Amino acid sequence: MSLRTFILGATGALVCIAAGGCATQGGPKPTEELTKARSVVEQADKGNAQRYAAADLQRAHDELNSADRAVTEKKYKDALAFAQRAQVDADLANARGNSGAAQKSAQEVTQGTDTLKQESQRGDNGAPRN
Q1: pLDDT tens digits for 2-47?
Q2: Is residue 78 within a helix (H) or strand (E), and if so which, with residue range?
């Protein structure tokens, strides 16, 4: 590859990056994405996320607030990105919350089973055998 080809390629890449950076403020208002993100965050608030995935849930709230600020500033591409991240963080918080609740339930079932086994063994030790 010649130096000229490299320079032309690098210049082209920089122009694309610069054009993309300028374009981040345009685009349509991401109303649908914001609505979806709010819905998923609210769902996470109502579920087990607060208890088992508080950091993920907080991050989702922060991203949603950033999306709202970006909309106010008419930075719609930024708002879209924040809304999408908020939705992903809220989904993650939901999943971790559900997983934490399921693990707790499984642990309780295991403890109950162990207790029943111990009680059963105590009963067998004191009972006469034939």
Answers
A1: 545 545 455 555 554 555 554 446 789 999 999 999 999 999 999 8
A2: helix 76-126
Measure the CA–CA gap between 119 and 89, rounded to whole angstroms: 45
pLDDT in tens, 99-109: 877 787 787 78
One-letter amino acid identity for 98?
N
Residue with token string 């991050």: 59
CA distance 93 to 58: 9
Half-sphere exposure of 121 (CA within 13 A, CB side): 6
Domains, the chain, in order of start with CATH, read 25-106 (1.20.1270)
How does DSSP classify residue 116? H
pTM above threshold 0.85:
no
Task: Say which residue the tokens 């006469």 belong to.
Answer: 128
Residue type, 29: K
Per DSSP, the three-state class of 83 is helix
